């Protein structure tokens, strides 16, 4: 391990630079994957909430009144309107704010 030509410092500097480059390249990818996973969990929860509200409305347990409610720390806004494409149907929509501070709305219809 004795290198008298002075290349060890240069080799260590190159290896350290490569490790830093790899680490800096991976961090944004990990953040993006984490944000996408969080948004997917929120969307799945919103679909579940919308399904529950539409099912409760269709069996008569719930009236079609707009409102806001919170589930697992996420605030959802529920709105109802008559479905213009299908007479006799009611459309329920759930809106929420994603991790990217964007408002997303999911809608579905029921009788």
Automatic annotation (TrEMBL):
It comes from the Bacteria. This is Uncharacterized protein. It comes from Peribacillus psychrosaccharolyticus.
